[in-house]
Design a protein that fits this description.
It is a single chain. By secondary structure, this protein is α/β, with parallel strands linked by helices. Helix content is about 45%, strand content about 10%. The chain is built from 12 helices and 10 strands. The longest helix is centred in the N-terminal third of the chain and has 26 residues, at about 1-25.
Amino acid sequence: MRGRLTKQIQRALPVYIACIVLVIVLANADSLSSSIKDANLVRRDILSRSVSRYGTKFPKKIWQTWKVDPLGFEERDLACARTWTSKNPGHRYEVLTDYNDLQYVETHYGPTGFNRPDIVKMYRTLNATIVKADLLRYLVMYAEGGMYVDIDVEDLKPIERFIPERYDETSVDMLIGVEIDQPEFSNHSILGKKSQSFCQWTFMCKPRLPVMLRLVENIMAWLNDIAKQQKVPVSEIVLDFDEVISGTGPSAFTAAILADISARTGHSVDWGTFHNLGESKLVAGVLVLTVEAFAAGQGHSDSGNHNARTALVKHHYHASQWPTKHPRYTHPVYGEVEKCNWVVECVKKWDEDVAAFKVMPPEEQAKLIAFKKAADQAAEQQQQQQPVFNAPLVFP
């Protein structure tokens, strides 16, 4: 009898153990789920903190983004692209297009990458081309690093000469240049946010820089806020020129970098640190070049010219047509203040004329607007009657 009972217990024992284990697992399901989430967060944090994980030097990669791949480039774009490959034969060159950009984001920021479904969702949702272009360059620089350049930027010097000899490349995490240095306009209603900025049509990063990821997160938060304000999905938001500049473009780029430098140095660092920059300056791993390096020939900000020894690139601007979809503020009579190109006297007169227009009687305003329209139409007709010569881009 006792032997029979012992055999029955032996047969039932695995079942009892399985039941006990099942009860324990169910009782701790929430804890287990939390542990998995915590593990994912730790993994994400490790990835985000592993700055320059591929070494102490900048990756030898050149990145561009455009509508099509190089086989479909127009001659002017191809001419610019060749300057980068010919002057930097040891660098890998890659173009992300409107056809493979989403795949890149899904690969690097999906479950097998940084596991950021919020980033992937935002990128899928966006329809504003220029915003996606800005976002994509930051995502690429965070994931892989290297040199980013706009499609219409010509390389004047080999990349190995971009970092002055007095600096050790291992102490530099990011290479940027000044674009606009006109702080006297910082309080201007239109020009203010654009008056102090770093160039983001050409810059170089080591991978996994936290500032790049924070910039992406800032942009996503801003886009969600805009969507709430406009009461539409992110895919349907409407942005003007200044909103793009301040939300995703040079102003957003500059604000994120200044905030990062401030955090890394432990004290506030503002534009004054880089105003009237006579030579390059390294601050908290960010090497800032003078305006002549990446933005020569602008006619403002003491930008010099492209023949200077310190000029590294030349921006041709032929791909900068996005403002047609995101127009600047244009006064019906006095036009765009940006056409003053930061000349103090011109901006002052524009401000005075606009202020005087505001207090005019409606009938006087209407007369001025009609006169301006007639003058514009006459100028357009005269231009149409003149022959047009399309000179090709010629590079030495």
